[in-house]
Design goal:
Order of helices and strands: HHHHHHHH
Helix content: over 70%
Largest sheet: none
Strand content: under 5%
Number of strands: 0
Oligomer: single chain
Distance between the termini: 45 Å
Number of helices: 8
Radius of gyration: 18 Å
Amino acid sequence: MEGTNPVNKKLAAALSGGAVLVLALTGCSSSDDNEKLDSWAKEVCEGVQPQAKKIEAANAAIQNETSDNSTPAEVQKTDAKAFQDMSDAYKAMAATVRKAGAPDVDDGEKKQKDAVTELNGLSSSYASLRKQVEDLNTKDQAKFADGLKDIATELNKLSKSGSDALKTLEEGDVGKAMARQESCKSASATPSAAAG
């Protein structure tokens, strides 16, 4: 069973990078007031927070499935479910941002559209990773470990490329408005929240 453990740990490490972009929904608090933007931020934060929790739970599930006594079949089942959960979560986030409409800032419409496209893209990427995991050969330990390595590589790419449009969406006044929302603060109760 040796192959499963270190490789799934690598998978977990790659995954935690991907979750960072969700938790980027934070900023430094500010006293600027813009009611329209605040209500937009509230809607987005409240819609995103449960999905961020779902992604964290999926990450945790993969990290927990790294013990030496996990069989390839157990790892496959856990990882496939985690990827599906992540795919669903990103899709729900895209729907939240789309439904909220464009934020009341310069280029708000373009920023919103780009973020929706990016979130839907992430959803598709995780859905295809789920299929990749399900197609792995659990009977052959070495082949299974190799397959997981390929998936970890994909995840690394995903975590590096995945958050440009979201970052752009959250720049400036939008980020400040989000930082004022309790639901965004609790969605990002991580060290990154100290950035302000």
